[in-house]
Amino acid sequence: MTRLRFRLNAGSYLAFLLWGLLLVALLPAGRLGLLLTLVVAFSWLGGGAGLRQVLANRRFWLFVLSTLAIAPFVLGEADVRWGILRLSRTGLEAGLWMALRAATLMLAFSASLGALSVAQMIRLFDGLGLRGLGFALGVALNLGPVLRDTVEAAYHTLRLRGGLRRPVQAARLFLVTVIANGLRYGDDVVQAASARAFDPAARPARVTPILGRADKLFIAGLAAVGVGLVLAP
Amino acid sequence: MKSYTVRDWVYVAVFGALWGALELTLGAYLHVLFPPLADTFFTGLILAGAGAVVALVGRTFVPRPGAVLGIGIVTALLKVLSLGGVKIGPVVAILAEAALMELALLSKASPTRWRYVLAGILAVSWNFFHKFIMMRLLYGQGITEVYVKMIQDGSQTLGMDVTQAVAVIGVLFLFRVAVGAVGGWLAWDLGRLVARRLARA
Q1: In this predicted model, which residue has the larger pLDDT, B16 or A101?
Q2: Taking burial as the number of CB atoms within 10 A of a residue's CB, which of A221, B41, B60, B174 is the most buried?
Q3: What's the pTM value of the predicted model, to 2 decimals?
Q4: In this structure, what CATH number is given to the domain that contains residue B28?
Q5: Domain residue limits, chain A
Q6: Does residue B56 fall inside a structural domain?
């Protein structure tokens, strides 16, 4: 199920995101269903994690269903009576296309960026000549537990010394402590990186290409399908 | 960004992680506290203000062009990699806020308090347009019609004139400008306070 992920590089996922955004903008409403099917298929082939995350998200359903619920009342002329409610068929149709469009975009975003691992993102930055940004991302990810400990220690120290009785001063002290300790930890990371002769400006000895053969084929396929969808009568 | 030292990148990471931690922890609490449709008007406003303060303090310690944008990119990627899954709205908001702050600080001259205030205003003001831009992007042209109709119907129901409804929207925007200005002002002071604590002033 996850074979697609092993074969494609980060460049393909980014290309898929751009492809999805472009087609959502270009395609007529009637063909959005087909695009949504392709996006769902891609997400499923990539492991389906992004698809599951979106479908399990309450907010996603709230946005999609609220559009469907509101549109028949506010768009178009009311031409259907349903009990005491007066609805518009045109509005319902417009709401359906709007919901479909939103679902496609959210899924495309999740299926492409959500499928990338940290290592793939860092390799992508390396490939783009932004090695420092990849390094910063790696450091930031590892900073999580340190920051949590710093925040907890600062909060409990302030609380136990009665600092919370003066909230403004406490907030200021808390922020200064957390930021200062984060930067002190940062200095340790700098020393460790310098000791290993890390140079963010240097080109790594072996750079994995952003696009391999499979990626080029995949992107060519995307382009062909995209043109077909746009130009089909 | 070619001229960045290891220290610069590590500090970008520290402030990106701080902003990311804010988004993931405070953001989760605020999402529980406020109803989903109030996201932009409460949750987004608080998160944008706090994020702007963190990013601008970061600019004090990485005084190079592109630093705030770098902090924003790291934050957005942390959000993408978070357990909550990839959400298009917050990622676009973080990147847009960082880009606007960077725009305000783009100059060879060293930044001043007023430029920080401007950066804060631009970043938090984005929060006002965010909902409209995202809705337009997600739902297409039809959403504009829905908004106009809802304002008309809403003001009619409340017995207000449409111009009054527009005035309410204007007040909401000015509120964001004020929050952004305070954020920028505080970030300038906070950066200096931290530098003094670390004996780097």
Answers
A1: B16
A2: B60
A3: 0.81
A4: 1.10.1760
A5: 3-117+210-231, 130-195
A6: yes
Does B60 reside within a domain? yes
Who among B10, B81, B138 is closest to A186 (CB)?
B10
In a domain, residue B149? The reply is yes
Q: Per residue in B18-60, pLDDT tens?
A: 999 988 888 878 877 776 656 666 788 889 999 999 999 999 9
Residue A1 pLDDT > 50 = no
Total domains in the fold of chain B: 1
Per-residue pLDDT tens over the stretch B88-123: 888 889 999 999 999 999 887 788 899 999 999 999
Nearest to A136 among B3, B12, B146 (CB): B12
Instruction: Give the gap in angstroms from C-alpha A184 to the nearest C-alpha of chain B.
Output: 8
Across the A:B interface, residue pairs with CB atoms under 8 Å apart total 166
B180 located within any domain:
yes
The residue ranking higher by pLDDT, A2 or A19, is A19
Percentage of residues in chain A with pLDDT exceeding 70?
Answer: 95
